[in-house]
Task: inverse folding
C-alpha cells in the first residue's frame, strides 16, 4: 500500500483569472484521458471567470459555495451536489464559507448519461 496526501497543506495556490483564496492538490493525471484534483476554497474565495479546458465535473464534497456559467445567475451548491461544464464553456466558482471540491476533467466525461441510466434525478 502507498499513502498520499491531497489536503490543503500540499495544495498549489491558484492565481490565474483573478482567483483568490483557493488552491488545488493534484491527485492523478492520465495524459489525454483524465485529470483529477482537489480544490480547496477558503472563506471568501473565487476561481475567476475562464473557459473550461475540456469537459469538467465539479463535485462538492464538503462545505458549500456557488458556480456560474456564462450568461447564467449564480447557483448555490452544497456537499453532495455537482456542476458540469462542457469544453470551452465560460464559468467561475467560489465560496463565502469554504468548501472542498473534487474536480474531474477529461474529453469523454458524460455524467448525465450515467445518471439517466440509473434513473437518478439531476439537481
Result:
Amino acid at each position: 500500500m502507498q499513502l498520499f496526501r491531497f489536503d490543503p497543506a500540499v495544495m498549489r495556490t491558484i492565481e490565474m483569472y483573478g482567483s483568490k483564496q483557493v488552491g488545488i492538490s493534484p491527485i492523478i493525471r492520465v495524459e489525454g484521458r483524465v485529470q483529477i484534483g482537489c480544490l480547496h476554497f477558503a472563506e471568501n474565495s473565487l476561481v475567476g471567470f475562464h473557459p473550461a479546458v475540456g469537459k469538467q465535473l465539479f463535485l462538492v464534497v464538503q462545505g458549500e459555495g456557488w458556480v456560474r456559467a456564462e450568461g447564467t445567475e449564480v447557483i448555490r451548491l452544497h456537499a453532495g451536489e455537482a456542476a458540469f461544464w462542457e469544453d470551452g464553456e465560460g464559468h467561475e466558482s467560489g465560496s463565502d464559507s469554504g468548501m472542498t471540491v473534487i474536480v474531474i476533467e477529461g474529453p469523454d466525461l458524460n455524467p448525465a448519461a450515467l445518471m439517466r441510466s440509473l434513473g437518478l434525478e439531476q439537481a
